[in-house]
Amino acid sequence: MNKIPKELRVGLLAIFCAVVLYKGISFLKGSELFRTTNVFYLVYDRIDGLQEGNSVLLNGAPVGIVKKLSLMFDNNNRVLVKIEIQKEVKADNKTVGTMLSSSLLGGKVIELTLGDARQLLKDGDTLKAAVAEDIADQIKKETKPLLSTAEKSLKQITETLQRLNTTLEKADVALASFATTSDGVSALMTDNKDNFRLTTANIVVLTKNFTQTERELRELLSKMNRLGDTLNNAHLGQTLTRAADATATLNKLLTGINNGQGTMGKLAKNDSLYRNLNASSASLDALLKDFKANPKRYVHFSVFGGKK
Predict the structure, then answer these.
(1) Is 104 exposed, middle or buried (0-12, 13-18, 19+ CB in 10 A)?
(2) What is the spatial distance between Cα 231 and Cα 221, in angstroms, rounded to a whole number?
(3) Which tens digits make up the pLDDT trace of 137-195?
(4) For residue 235, what are the contacts with CB-CB under 8 A and spacing of at least 6?
(5) Hey, where are the domains in the chain?
(6) Distance between terminal CA atoms of the chain?
(7) Which of 125, 166, 100, 126 is nearest to 43 (CA)?
């Protein structure tokens, strides 16, 4: 038996190692070693977060991997995505490959949505591509109103805390003032303790005096009631009527005197009596003066008698 040349053996070993290496790398990327697969393509405008080796899912279960990402320079720099999926997956012309987020960290996967499987695609065909809204964008949209409300609430809480702080500062000032006032009142009470004691004693005495005065007032009112009863019994009305009649008579008499009626009226209204009395007074005065000046003219006195 002829020996195999050394160069052939080395070549076969190199080919075997290359195959093993390729299969190992494919296995590490998610490909199964001895399973047949189909290759499909998708075209996206952007593939933020999608990387080679990421999973291809069907109803949430992995059925393939992303094999290659390539820029299409002749097609507005769009991205051509090559995926490899299990041959058992029946992809049709209505199958859609949707790129969506797998986590909040930005990882991407491709979710397959199958059609009615009436017109199956062949290996190497292109699937319809779609992009789902990013989880972060969804959270942002959903939380934006909440953030706005939270921001308003936080602003209101901040304003409330500021007002509360201002109120507390005023309360501190008021308490300090109250403490000062309290100390002043305490000092005033201490300094005027004797005066307060004396005032309290005076109030007690005054209360007793009020009690005594009340008793005296009651007695006075009782006496006034008895006086009223006495006046009622004394026919005060008749007495007042008689007094009114006497007053009317007196007014009539004074009216007559003022009119010159009667003796009193003539004396009050006629001055002849006044003139006669005045003249008589003047004559009497002249007589007295002459009597003082010439007494002999009126009185003749002699021890032995003389002429009459």
Answers:
(1) exposed
(2) 15
(3) 666 666 667 777 778 888 888 888 888 888 888 888 888 877 777 776 677 667 677 77
(4) none
(5) 1-34, 37-132
(6) 241
(7) 126
From residue 139, give the alpha-carbon distance in Å to each of 26, 100, 143, 170, 276. 36, 14, 6, 45, 140
CA distances from 115 to 44, 165, 238 (A): 20, 66, 133
Question: Is the pLDDT assigned to residue 304 strictly greater than 70?
Answer: no
Mean pLDDT, range 20-29, rounded to an integer? 73
Going by the DSSP 8-state scheme, the letter that residue 176 receives in this structure is H
Cα(62)–Cα(30) distance, rounded to whole angstroms? 10
Supply angle C-alpha 221, 224, 230, rounded to 5.
150
CB-based burial, 191-218: b 16+ in 10 Å, e otherwise? eeeeeeeeeeeeeeeeeeeeeeeeeeee
Going from the C-alpha of 130 to that of each of 17, 21, 294, the distances in angstroms are 40, 34, 173
- Written as one letter, the residue type at 282 is A
Burial of 38 per CB tally in 10 Å (0-12, 13-18, 19+)? buried
φ/ψ of residue 271, rounded to 5? -95, 10
Cα atoms in the 13 Å half-sphere on the side-chain side of 109? 19
Chain segment 242-301, per-residue pLDDT in tens: 888 888 888 877 787 777 676 666 666 667 766 777 788 888 888 888 877 887 776 655
Tokens describing residue 301: 């006195």
Supply angle C-alpha 61, 64, 67, rounded to 5: 145
> How many whole angstroms separate alpha carbon 56 and alpha carbon 36?
16
The model's pTM is: 0.38
Model confidence pLDDT, tens digit, residues 85-140: 898 888 888 889 999 887 766 678 999 988 876 788 888 888 888 888 766 666 66
Q: What's the rounded Cα separation, in Å, for the pair 192 and 201?
A: 14
